[in-house]
Write a structure and sequence with these properties.
heterodimer, A: about 260 residues, alpha/beta, 4-stranded antiparallel sheet, 9 helices, about 35% helix, B: about 220 residues, mainly alpha, MetI-like fold, about 80% helix, binds adenosine-5'-diphosphate, binds magnesium ion, ABC-type amino acid transporter activity (chain A), Glutamine transport ATP-binding protein GlnQ (chain A)
Chain lengths: ~260, ~220
């Protein structure tokens, strides 16, 4: 099935003396859609934040395209990565946050243009054309000159996705991107993600509580519990015939709601 | 009635110095505030500590004593002459208010939501790009109302320069009073009015900035 685009091996992470992740091993194949589920506080966010370089693992390695993310070679020795090394590697990763984190002082088209323009991916005119196209794709073509404060939560989250997509990441991370939204706005955001998933080439890791949605688009589901991946498999199997008692409990609690 | 006219004409002579000291001090103290404020949030420990000491020294002593130091003590002690009296005044005021204002630069930068930094990292901006395009523009919006208040304070502080011999508004008022003792109330009433009129544009600026700064900032 080809080389993994992302590989976690023996990843541990503690905050102070709390061990949050206790040995995560994980391969993500190019284009694969993986849903990450588990109780709140189990470390789902931490797992993807380490890949986005927002959090440093306590031990273990993460490879992106075969390259060591958190360590680099210097005079024949492995040392912690510096900014330059992280900058060179994390271009392949993109992330959408629970609370959008749009830049409030810029219009939404400027939000989308900033990073590609600074990275000189294209000249400014070309970047603007692409940004407008991207905003059209998420259904906001008529709002490009508005500021984030003028949008609904669902619209903000769609801008955040367009902005992340502008950098053409090979892996996109979604951290409970609908959980800060009013229920009636969740659908429009999931719709955009579903379309992206169908396009196929970009790998996705989705932290989500939307089980139906996970069942629908994920190639694989990981159940995280107490710092380890307790169970994993294709959605039809894992959600329908959970093996571990903990996953059964977890799903039962969900179905009750 | 006649004396009001006379006094006003005399005070107008002093306005020039007041305005020059005000304008140049605003420019220089703003520059100092940014340099010091950015140093205070930098990860360079030496720079950070050094600036911290500067800020505490200048906030911890009064402007009037700093004025006297720059104009009388430094020349006597170290043979340091800061040029004309105007420059001495401008430098003392700028260092003093630069220290105060660097604190609003620092705290504004620190109060831009951490999510903004995280989004910048996720978009692979460099540290410099993140400061330049995301953090500082939002910090400036946040600091503007307080910045306006400091400008008004700088205007008021300029009235101290007559104590080191500059011929500003207050200086001319005092001159007039010393020869027309009975008209002291009129003199100081007019001086109040003059300072208030000078402050009006700064007050208007501050109000405007309060409205402006409410837009376009992500705060924790
Ligand atoms: N920066 C941090 N400092 C201290 N503790 C943290 C930090 N980030 C996360 N944690 C802790 O790590 C655990 C896992 O957090 P998180 O990855 O956010 O879980 P999840 O996303 O599954 O709800 C939680 O107990 C949380 O309190
Ligand atoms: Mg989380």
């Amino acid at each position: 099935m080809g080389k993994p685009i992302v590989n976690y091996s023996k990843i541990h992470k503690s905050f102070g003396d709390v061990d949050v992740l206790k040995g995560i091993n994980l391969d993500i194949k190019p284009g694969e859609k993986v849903a990450l589920i588990g109780p709140s506080g189990s470390g789902k966010t931490t797992i993807i934040r380490m890949l986005m370089t927002l959090e440093q693992p306590t031990s273990g390695t993460i490879l992106v395209n075969g390259e060591n993310l958190w360590q680099m070679e210097k005079k024949g020795q492995l040392v912690p990565s510096d900014d330059k090394h992280l900058h060179a590697i994390r271009g392949d990763i993109g992330m959408v946050f629970q609370h959008f984190n749009l830049f409030p002082h810029m219009t939404i088209v400027e939000n989308c243009m900033l990073a590609p323009a600074l990275a000189k991916k294209n000249d400014k005119k070309e970047v603007k054309i692409q940004a407008v196209e991207m905003l059209e794709k998420v259904g906001l073509g008529d709002k490009i000159n508005l500021y984030p404060a003028q949008l609904s939560g669902g619209q903000k989250q769609r801008v955040a996705m367009a902005r992340a997509l502008m950098m053409k990441p090979k892996v996109m991370l979604f951290d409970e991107v609908t959980s800060a939204l009013d229920p009636e706005l969740v659908g429009e955001v999931l719709e955009v993600i579903r379309d992206l998933a169908k396009e196929g080439e970009m790998a996705m890791i989705l932290v989500t509580h939307e089980m139906d949605f996970a069942l629908d688009i994920a190639d694989r589901i990981l159940f995280l519990n107490e710092g380890v991946i307790e169970e994993e498999g294709p959605p039809s199997e894992l959600l329908v015939n959970p093996k571990s008692e903990r996953l059964q409990d977890f799903l039962a609690r969900f179905n009750k709601r | 009635m006649n004396s009001i006219m006379d006094i006003s004409l005399l005070l107008l002579k002093g306005i020039k110095i007041t305005l020059i000291v005000l304008a140049v001090s605003i420019v220089i103290s703003t520059l100092i505030a940014f340099v010091a404020g950015l140093s205070r949030v930098s990860s360079n420990v030496l720079l950070n500590k050094f600036t911290g000491v500067y800020v505490e020294i200048f906030r911890g002593t009064s402007l009037i004593i700093q004025l006297f130091w720059f104009s009388y003590a430094l020349p006597g002690l170290f043979n340091i002459h800061l040029g004309s009296d105007i420059w001495t005044a401008v430098i003392a005021i700028s260092l003093n208010y630069g220290a105060y204002m660097s604190e609003i630069v620092r705290s504004s930068i620190l109060s831009v939501s951490h999510g903004q930094t995280e989004a910048s990292v996720a978009l692979n901006l460099t540290k410099f790009q993140r400061m330049r395009h995301i953090i500082i523009p939002q910090a400036i919006r946040m600091m503007l109302p307080e910045y306006g208040n400091y400008l008004i304070q700088i205007l008021k502080a300029t009235s101290l320069v007559s104590l080191i011999g500059l011929t500003d508004l207050l200086y001319y008022g005092n001159i007039y009073r010393s020869t027309h003792l009975s008209e002291a109330p009129t003199v100081y009433m007019l001086i109040l009015v003059f300072y208030f009129v000078l402050a009006l544009p700064l007050i208007a600026f501050t109000r405007k900035m309060e409205v402006f700064s409410k837009k376009g900032v992500a705060q924790e």
